[in-house]
Each structure stands twice: as structure tokens, then as C-alpha cells.
Amino acid sequence: MALRKIRLFGDEVLRKKSREVEVVDEKIRQILDDMAETMYNTENGGGLAAPQIGILKRLVVIDMGQGLIKLVNPKIIKQEGSQEVIEGCLSNPHVFGRLLRPEKVTVQALDENGKEIILTGTGDLAKCFCHEIDHLEGILFTDFVTKYLK
């Protein structure tokens, strides 16, 4: 595993759409491991998307306290309700804002072995699913902020 440099707001890679992963192989698993190590090496990181380390592949790692989740080609297949949340981003440290996210989200993806999985998250996990999958589309949380916090 290796620490990767986190790209910061202003880096054009953060505004580009990521490509689907065709085959989940050892190279993809290594990227996921590097992403997890990089996320765990930050102060408050609960998730990291591949574009944040300069890789335009549809890969996400998340740990909101329930254990590490590795997702390949994740997509939201269902969302319910609405919640006002406060978000930040490892690519824009020290900037936080209020925005609306779904209260409950169901995600379809492949795991690190290429097996299809379906996960449902509520509250903070739902927020994190949305935030990280947005990164794969070149969308940043600041696109939705209703109020910035000081």
C-alpha cells in the first residue's frame, strides 16, 4: 500500500467524469488499498473517490465507523427522504457547508473481487455515498451548498 497525494479544489481532474472499471484485477485492488491508506492517514476522512488521487476510475472507499467499504463502479439505484447535512471534503480542507442530501440511499456496485453488491445507508453513510459518487461525476459538494460555515 502507498499514500497518494490528494488533489485539491482547482485541480481540473476533480471536474472530470470517471470511467467505468472493466475488470476488477490486482491493479484495481491495489488502487483501492492505496485509497484506503490515504483516507485513513487524514484527520477526518470518511471517504475518498479515485479522482481525488488523480485517477479517473469509478472507485470509492468509505469508512463512516462501520468498517471499510470498497466500491467499484458504484451507482445510486434508490434514494428516499431528505436531510440537511454539513459536509466538508478532503480536497477542500477547512471548508464546510450546509446542503441537502437524501436520508436513505441504496447503492449498487462491485466489491474488490468483482462480485455485485447492494448496500443501503442512512444518515451519514447515505451522505457519504452521495458525496463520493458525485466525485465520480465531476461534481463537488460546493455545487450544492446553501450556506457556508465559518
From TrEMBL:
The residues the record assigns to binding Fe cation are: C89, H131, H135
Which Gene Ontology BP terms does the record give?
Answer: translation
Note accompanying the cofactor annotation: Binds 1 Fe(2+) ion.
- Among its keywords, does the record have Hydrolase? yes
- Which positions, given as ranges, span the membrane? none
Under InterPro entries, the record lists: Peptide_deformylase, Peptide_deformylase_sf
As cofactor, the record names:
Fe(2+)
Any idea of its EC number? 3.5.1.88
Q: Which reaction is catalysed here?
A: N-terminal N-formyl-L-methionyl-[peptide] + H2O = N-terminal L-methionyl-[peptide] + formate
Cite the GO molecular-function annotations of the record: metal ion binding; peptide deformylase activity
Which EC class is this protein assigned? hydrolase
Record Pfam families: Pep_deformylase (PF01327)
Name the UniProt key words of this record, in alphabetical order: Hydrolase, Iron, Metal-binding, Protein biosynthesis
Locate the active site.
E132
Q: What does this protein do?
A: Removes the formyl group from the N-terminal Met of newly synthesized proteins. Requires at least a dipeptide for an efficient rate of reaction. N-terminal L-methionine is a prerequisite for activity but the enzyme has broad specificity at other positions.
Q: Which family does it belong to?
A: Belongs to the polypeptide deformylase family.
- Read off the PANTHER family from this record: PEPTIDE DEFORMYLASE
Name this protein carries in UniProt: Peptide deformylase
